[in-house]
Specification:
heterodimer, A: 454 residues, alpha/beta, six-stranded parallel β-sheet, four-stranded mixed β-sheet, 10 strands, B: 53 residues, alpha+beta, two-stranded parallel ribbon, 3 helices, globular
Chain lengths: 454, 53
């Protein structure tokens, strides 16, 4: 168990530079997304179709995964099944070792960050080079990402220039073109020399064995095409049944994530082919808690997520705390429902409360995940399965008794009018610090109603 | 979030802030009282009831 959201959020809330960076970045992306979504006449029908496709994939996940294995194998790839992160990391390390590589180049990938692949490879004597610009910034700074799509959203360009000067030893100003040129210089040498590429995937198509990576910079395509070997680590929930399902998903994803009609680079490949691209392809299918999420009939909808990050950008809580407060590679509203389910509720019991339940996340979700309902569901599970402080338990039991009968409720109202009763408890101090109970009126609504009707 | 909400409310110059959600009213109303902001919160039902009485 880590610090928990309330504690982890406190330091972020005190950092005014961070809040300015985040406020600026999220409001920019929000406006872009709203503009391009409004252009699509049938956006709601598209969302419904996206939700349906993912639901269908999850309902018969076992069938689709075995079909995917067949298709990839037929196309000349090798499929590995990884029960947990350690198994997946071992596969990647073995492949690197088999090719005598002491370095691998990486496409931005949340799944590999989730399982700590870079650290595991480092222990096996293999250095992983992040090639996504933002991931590179994070890696150079020894920092961790704070947004699904914009990992360095908490940094501004002046801070990034400092990191490049310090870590790459180059003279750069904070002009974006100079910063990207410095990164390009650094990365090109890696693209042309490192023999093993590692990626995640946005989608994997069971019917055809195609793996899909959607990105903006082109660095991902370098990693998936230039090395002689490619390993893709993919969560089992990323499978799509049919090729045509991409038609829906590739419309939903870019508009929801970067606020673009279409992302600059969509790389799609199946297995290996002669004279073009890697000579060897490995697909690692990662469970790491996903089967457990599937067992929860309400919570499982979280597995529909296509990692667009629209929910982060509209969340009033995320906008103020930033991503680090969620202590996971999956921050924001989706992280608040995904992390506790993937790790186990006892490992992240505070996250389901990291929300005001305003519902903005549900409104923008391209696959219609009802995040507020799942948050409430998980709060219930935490209370039942992990437990709550004795004082809160006693107070809630008393409240339940009072609210269960009209007579007890009206008696409590009369007692409250005299300044007594369960609501006057000092056990509520943390709650009353930022809230105030309304003053008890001299006449309750029921009393007024009875008098009005008499 | 409360600080931002209160600033937006004070910027309007209104005397009363209303809402249909009691949790919001307790939260925002508590904040306004603690800050002695001079803005009252009322549930929308209270406003409707005051018209009939």
């Amino acid at each position: 168990v880590k610090d928990g959201f309330p504690k982890a959020a406190r330091s972020a809330l005190g950092n005014s530079q961070l809040r300015r960076n985040l406020g600026h970045a999220t409001s920019t992306i929000r406006a872009k997304r709203a503009r391009v979504v409004a252009e699509v006449d049938d956006w709601d029908a598209l969302r419904a179709a996206g939700a349906e496709i993912k639901e269908r994939a999850l309902r018969h996940l076992d069938v689709h995964l075995e079909r995917l294995e067949e298709s990839v194998t037929r196309a000349g790839g090798t499929v590995h099944w990884a029960r947990d992160g350690a198994e997946a990391c071992a596969v990647v390390a073995d492949v690197a070792r088999a090719h005598g590589a002491d370095e691998v180049i990486k496409v931005k990938s949340l799944a590999t960050d989730e399982i700590g692949l870079n650290e595991a490879l480092e222990r096996a004597g293999v250095h992983a080079v992040e090639t996504d610009l933002a991931e590179l910034i994070i890696q150079l700074d020894g920092d961790s990402q704070s947004h699904i799509l914009v990992p360095a959203i908490h940094r501004n360009r002046a801070e990034i220039a400092q990191i490049f000067q310090r870590e790459l030893g180059v003279e750069v100003s904070d002009v974006p073109a100079e910063l990207t040129a410095a990164a390009r210089e650094h990365l090109r040498a890696k693209f042309l020399s490192v023999p093993v590429g590692v990626s995640g995937a946005n989608f994997a198509v069971a019917e055809t064995g195609h793996v899909v990576v959607v990105e903006s910079e082109g660095n991902g395509r370098m990693c998936t095409t230039l090395p002689e070997v490619l390993v893709s680590v993919v969560g089992i929930e990323k499978v799509l049944p049919r090729w045509r399902d991409l038609a829906v998903m590739l419309q939903l994803l870019p508009r929801s994530s970067t606020g673009e009609r279409m992302n600059p680079y969509t790389s799609i490949w199946s297995g290996v082919s002669d004279g073009d691209g890697p000579r060897e392809f490995h697909l690692v299918l990662l469970d790491a808690g996903r089967s457990n999420v599937l067992a929860d009939e309400v919570g499982r909808a979280a597995l529909r997520c296509i990692r667009c990050s629209a929910c982060l950008n509209v969340c009033p809580v995320y906008e103020r705390t930033g991503g680090h407060a969620y202590e996971s590679v999956y921050p924001g509203p989706i992280g608040a429902i995904l992390t506790p389910q993937l790790r186990g509720l006892d490992q992240a019991p505070t996250l389901p409360w990291a929300s005001s339940l305003c519902g903005a996340c549900y409104e923008v979700c391209p696959v219609k995940i009802d995040i507020p309902s799942i948050l409430v569901h998980l709060r219930g599970r935490v209370v039942r399965e992990v437990g709550t402080p004795a004082g809160e338990r006693a107070a809630m039991a008393a409240m339940a008794r009072v609210f269960a009968s009209r007579r007890a409720y009206e008696a409590a109202q009369r007692a409250a009018r005299l300044g007594r009763g369960p609501l006057a408890g000092a056990a509520m101090r943390p709650w009353t610090r930022s809230r105030e109970l309304p003053t008890v009126p001299s006449q309750s609504f029921r009393e007024w109603w009875r008098a009005e009707r008499a | 979030m409360l600080t931002d909400k209160m600033r937006h409310i004070l910027d309007t110059g209104a005397d009363v802030c209303t809402a249909a959600d009691n949790s919001c009213l307790m939260h925002i109303g508590g904040g306004l009282r603690h800050a002695r902001a001079g803005v009252r919160v009322m549930h929308v039902a209270e406003i409707l009831a005051s018209e009939t009485s």
